[in-house]
């Protein structure tokens, strides 16, 4: 298992290095399309009403140049809130790439206790895969869904996201992309399926809006 993890790390590091080389090798001015800022993302989504959570300067320094949204949404008919995090990078040519939640969660003290992938299928969009994590800390549990989004395309794999980053840079002269993550606390005794059923209707409100803030 350790050898497999080491191999994955080497492959990921090699892919990231190759991505950086290919992106920086392109000399022409990058195409960065216009879009709405994430601050304009609706604070009202169906029955959910949102409140922004500011990011401190240290976190912004780590993330690098980009546009970020962190917002807690609550609904009167839901027993727990939902947190939405979107990180959009208009360019990833200079090494400012998307940070995987797999690396950030352990740093925050949260331990993954279950991980898998699910398919998200919403009206008006082809189904796409998302990562599903149950994380735990000091007896508390949370359910996390996240995926990478660029040009109206959702992928779960960090490696596929890097592949499409290179492909889109060559084909479209663009290296923009985003991470979309939604999280909800799991109530005491609550099953994974029950918590997921709370997140899926919320995600169905988010996905149709993404193209306005993360250009196709």
Strand and helix order = HEEHEEHEEEEHEHH
Secondary structure: number of strands? 9
Beta-strand portion reads 25-35%
Biggest sheet statistics: 9 strands, antiparallel
Number of domains: 1
Please explain how this structure is put together:
The chain is built from 6 helices and 9 strands; from the N terminus they run αββαββαββββαβαα. With 216 residues, it is an alpha+beta fold. Strands 1, 2, 3, 4, 5, 6, 7, 8 and 9 form a 9-stranded antiparallel β-sheet that branches. The model has no long low-confidence stretch (mean pLDDT 87).
Summarize the structure.
The chain is an alpha+beta fold and 216 residues long. It has 6 helices and 9 strands, in the order αββαββαββββαβαα.
Features:
alpha+beta, 216 residues, 6 helices
Q: Helix and strand layout, with pairings?
A:
Blueprint: H1 2-25, E1 44-45, E2 48-52, H2 57-63, E3 67-75, E4 82-89, H3 101-107, E5 111-120, E6 128-137, E7 140-150, E8 153-155, H4 158-172, E9 177-186, H5 192-206, H6 210-213
Antiparallel strand pairs: 1-2, 2-3, 3-4, 4-9, 5-6, 6-7, 7-8, 7-9
Helix pairs in contact: 1-4
């Amino acid at each position: 298992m350790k050898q497999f993890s080491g191999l994955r790390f080497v492959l990921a590091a090699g892919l990231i290095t190759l991505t950086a080389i290919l992106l920086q090798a392109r000399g022409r001015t990058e195409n960065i399309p216009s879009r709405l800022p994430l601050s304009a993302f609706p604070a009202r989504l169906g029955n959910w009403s949102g409140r922004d959570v500011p990011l401190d300067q240290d976190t912004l320094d780590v993330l690098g140049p980009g546009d970020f949204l962190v917002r807690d949404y609550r609904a009167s008919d839901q027993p727990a809130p939902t947190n939405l995090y979107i990180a959009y990078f208009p360019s990833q040519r200079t090494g400012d790439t998307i940070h995987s939640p797999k690396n950030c969660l352990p740093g925050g003290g949260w331990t993954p206790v279950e991980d898998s992938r699910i398919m998200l299928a919403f009206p008006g969009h082809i189904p796409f895969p998302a990562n599903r994590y149950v994380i735990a800390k000091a007896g508390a549990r949370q359910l996390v869904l996240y995926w990478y989004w660029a040009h109206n395309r959702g992928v779960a794999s960090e490696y596929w996201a890097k592949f499409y980053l290179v492909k889109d840079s060559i084909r479209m002269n663009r290296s923009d992309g985003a991470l979309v993550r939604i999280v909800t606390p799991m109530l005491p005794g609550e099953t994974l399926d029950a918590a997921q059923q709370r997140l899926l209707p919320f995600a169905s409100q988010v996905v149709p809006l993404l193209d306005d803030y993360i250009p196709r």
